Amino acid sequence: PTCSSPSASTSKKSSGLSSTLQTSINEIIRQPTMKKLYRSTCVRRVALLLMYCSSSVQSFQGIQLNTNSFRFRRKGDVATQLRAAPFFDILNHLPFEDVSRQLTEALDIGGDLLKDSDQLSSGSANIPAAETSIVLESMGQDLLIFLLSSVVVTLLSNASGVSPILGYLIAGAILGPHGLDVFSNERADVELGDFGILFLLFSEGLEVSSQRLAKLKNYLPLGFAQISLTTGVITAALLAGAPQFFDRFLPLDDGFIDISNPTEAVVLALAGTLSTSAFIFPVLKERGWEGENAGQAATSILLLQDLFVAPLLVILPFVVGQGPTDYAAIAFLTAKAAIGFGFVMFVLSKVLQQIFRVVAKTQSAETFVALSLLVSVGMGAVAKSLGLTDTAGAFAAGILLANTNFRAQIQADILPFKGILLGIFFMDAGSLFDSELVLAELPTVLTGAISLILLKGITVAAATRVPRWMEPNRLEPYDAVKLAFLLSGGGEFAFVVLALAEKLDVLPKDLGGLLTAIVLITMAVTPLLGIAASSVSKNFSFDQLSHTFDDDSSESFVADDAIVVCGYGEVGKAVFEKLGDLKDEDTGHPPSLVAFDMSPMLMNSILMPTPSSAVMFGDSANPEVILAHGVEKPRALFVSYDDHEQVMSAVARLRFSFPEAPIFTRAQSRFEAQELMEAGATEIVVEFDELPRSAQALLLKVEEEKKVLLEDSVVINV
Asked: How far is the C-alpha of 233 from the C-alpha of 241, rounded, in Å?
């Protein structure tokens, strides 16, 4: 967004440009193919939903100031111009305006999606209907391609045993602009992919309990060491002539390896220092390393790197000698980020849980899902407006909700969005891969990728070997090897640093394309680095007795083979009590029981009728809620809901996720029982049959009671 009103000449040019654009769009729509696409209501609606989400994130940005007025602009559809108070006139003359605008533009990846819409009237942005239709149609086409690719990649990954991340990258490279070029709106696709990163970091934040957060602080010194040492080592290697040394043995391109400018070397080192959260977190979860020291250290370092990106983008113009030399501006931005975000966190820590409790009382699953999405995306937007990365804001929002009883339910609600949008992000990343450039400069690209991995891996490993008296939380070799492999690749924020460097004319565009390919390759091999870390760390297995936290196991007190009761109403409570009376034949102890219910009273506390049983908040018809509480192999599942459709949905979903577990439920008729049996239920109690089946027993019981009473009366008379 600009900070001054457009001049008359500019407005005239914009008007002419918009008129020409309108005419061209109308001509395009008249084509037979475009008419057919325009009639595709389904495609248009799906794209509209996703585009609305994208524009919602941007709605927190775009504050415009000038000497007479200020303008809140929501990109895409809403804008209101207000008269400014004298306070805002003073703000216009403060020195931080240029730096703040520069930082906002640098962090706003893909934020200019609708920048060609120059139709402004009374402060509102009006996008022509024809232009909107074209954008929505293009997004709808890309969405269909993404969904089809996701299905194919998942099937092939499961069949081959290869990580789906690699599959998404390969698919993006094949379908992207350097391949078949089938994507219609790459900028909008990037926006959608960014949502996947937000949900990933928000989900990771939900895993950070108060105990785990305290442990993450222990590895902050290691994080600072990783950033500083890696930057120094890469800079020294470039300036010492390492590329020229390899050129003696390999056919490298002299035009790319001649890096003698210290500023250029520092920029490349800063970009190479960053690692990828989007690839490392799935590897940690897949291999079960999140609770290990290596996983905790990786999480802490990645979070620190995310926090490091925003100040890096502010400092970079000063490093290259092109930024304003007003240190008051930097001080203000730093204070705004620290104090402002701290204040937001304090306020949300007081009210956020209360908001979720109010929404839970409505018993509306849709509203609960909407609130979960709003918190993750909204906190990212707030963090970006304060000068931090949106991923850091999403992670912080997750931490605020990590110690609540509805944590697992939130994780389950955002999981489908996170999975699909992360796939889009990985395909977007793969689409940046320029195969022609890589093939033309293959020796240079491979040498750069291998060198980056080796330099980062060795530096991280060396940072973990400081004397224990200097670092009491020093990692053991078993965990240090894993950490070194995991952090040795490049990161997605390297693209942001490289883009800013090109904008500042520090790096030539050709070199920027080569570096993008190198970073992409190192990111793509992260799953393979995870495999290597697992294999190499086995050589240090004698240290593994100390590689986990002692108190992590206490975070989930539910056994992984617990009996699960879905619903805690009248029937569910009766089933829960009857099961609690059982005794294990081997141990003599009652079985481990857990019941889930969406009752608002469970949001404040966990009911524990016995030491081995618990009643918790959550929709147990969603298997992800059960898995989030650590129940991976339930001994049995009892579905006690009253509504038949709800029971059908729960049985089908639970059977899909737990194919070996027995599922018991009830039905009102034999027809309903047959449907439940086909859905996957193991045994069904039919209420229609209970009275006929029990008729004789009930009659005999009543006759026996009468006989006893008669005998008692005879005895009394005698």
From this structure: 13
pLDDT tens, residue by residue, 311-343 = 787 677 777 765 555 566 667 767 777 787 788
**CA atoms lying within 13 Å on the CB side of residue 314:** 27
- Both tokens of 246, joined, read 């390899």
Burial of 136 (0-12, 13-18, 19+ CB in 10 A): buried
The beta strands (E) that lie in 230-328 are given as none
Q: Name the DSSP class of 274.
A: -
Are the beta carbons of 572 and 595 closer than 8 angstroms?
yes
In which element (H, E) is residue 71 found?
strand 69-74
For residue 443, CA distances in Å to 231, 252, 434, 511 come to 24, 6, 15, 15
Number of H helices, E strands in the chain: 31, 11
Which of 60-64, 559-563, 609-613 holds the top average pLDDT?
A: 559-563
Q: How far apart are CA 457 and CA 693, in angstroms?
A: 70
Per-residue DSSP letters for 4-66? SPPPHHHHHHHHHHHHHHHHHHHHHHTSHHHHHHHT-HHHHHHHHHHHHHHHHHHTT--EEE-
- Here the tokens at position 29 are 């729509």
pTM over 0.70: no
> Measured between alpha carbons, how far is 414 from 372 in angstroms, rounded to an integer?
7
Closest CA to 396 of 579, 208, 235, 183: 208
Instruction: Give the model's pLDDT for residue 129.
Output: 66
Buried b (16+ CB within 10 A) or exposed e, 391-423: bbbbbbbbbbbbebbbbbbbbbbbbebbebbbb
How many other CB atoms sit within 10 Å of the CB of residue 251? 10
d(CA 309, CA 271): 10
Q: What is the pLDDT of residues 279-308, one digit of tens each?
A: 898 888 888 888 788 898 998 999 888 878
What confidence tens digit (pLDDT) does each residue in 624-639 have?
888 888 888 899 999 9
The end-to-end CA distance of the chain, in Å, is: 103
Query: Which 3 state secondary structure label does DSSP give 125?
Result: strand
Positive or negative: CA dihedral 473, 474, 478, 482: positive
Q: How far apart are CA 325 and CA 276, in angstroms?
A: 32
Q: What is the DSSP string of 361-383?
A: HTT-HHHHHHHHHHHHHHHHHHH
Residue showing tokens 């120094």: 232
Q: Tens of pLDDT along 97-153?
A: 454 455 445 444 434 333 333 333 344 445 566 666 776 777 778 888 888 988 998
Indicate whether 663 pLDDT > 90.
Answer: yes
pLDDT in tens, 396-415: 888 888 877 778 888 888 88
Please give the Cα distance from 644 to 651 (Å, whole number): 10
Q: Which tokens in the block code for residue 299?
A: 């999480």
Question: How crowded is residue 249: how many other Cβ atoms within 10 Å of its Cβ?
Answer: 8
What 3-state class would DSSP assign to 119? coil
